[in-house]
Design brief:
Layout (H helix, E strand, L loop, with lengths): L5 H9 L5 H12 L3 E3 L8 E8 L3 H11 L8 E4 L11 E6 L7 H7 E3 L5 E3 L5 H4 L2 H11 E3 L5 E3 L6 H15 L1 E6 L4 E8 L1
Antiparallel strand pairs: 1-2, 2-4, 3-4, 5-6, 7-8, 8-10, 9-10
Helix pairs in contact: 2-6
Length: 195
């Protein structure tokens, strides 16, 4: 059996499409800890998933099952540098996708550049159209926690106040969820009860 030529390989990479499940999980996890990489505007993007090991290994492996057709290698366990606050050394388990042109759309949705050309993560302007129940569940799984009084807390400290207001509006309109911002830590909280 002959191997595909270089031009055939490039064509295969450019014709790859995400399933609806992969799109939803990507939308939700990018609101949380998932991140994207793109070396230059002319290069294609890739997504990276990274979780604490061994605490969140099972969750990371479930993400890998969803995206494994887009990766070159299985998840790897890595040691982090010592935590500056505790001096403890933590481990993570992570995997990256290969670089695809289809991922450029998501990179452009979630990443902006400031006046110094420094990259930062942002909430997509069209988040109301993107966020559905599966994407919300993915966001909660990657960056949420349950508080002692039964509410779900979404950790969103990387976003601006206006972006948090957009997320609040989206959660209210699309899911009838009451939310409040916790100013001290700049996080949004979604109560588990609806209006």
């Amino acid at each position: 059996m002959a191997l595909p030529s270089c031009s055939s390989t490039i064509l295969l990479y450019n014709n790859v499409v995400l399933t609806s499940i992969q799109k939803d999980v990507l939308v939700g996890t990018l609101l949380g800890d998932a991140c994207m990489e793109r070396d230059k505007p002319t290069h294609n993007s890739r997504v990276r998933f990274d979780q604490t090991y061994p605490n969140h290994e099972e969750y990371l492996l479930s993400l890998y099952e969803i995206f494994k057709d887009f990766t070159g290698t299985p998840p790897k366990i890595q040691e982090r540098k010592p935590d500056k606050r505790t001096n403890k050394i933590y481990k993570t388990i992570a995997f990256k996708s290969l670089r695809y042109s289809m991922l450029n759309y998501y990179y452009d949705l979630y990443y902006k550049y400031d006046e110094n050309n420094k990259r930062y993560k942002s909430v997509p302007i069209n988040i109301k159209e993107l966020l559905n129940a599966r994407a919300l569940a993915s966001w909660i799984m990657v960056d949420g926690s349950i508080e002692s009084y039964g509410s779900t807390q979404l950790h969103t400290d990387k976003f601006s106040f206006n972006e948090l207001k957009l997320l609040q509006e989206t959660l209210s309109i699309k899911f009838n969820l009451r939310t409040r911002l916790i100013k001290k830590t700049t996080r949004t909280m979604s109560d588990s009860n609806s209006h």
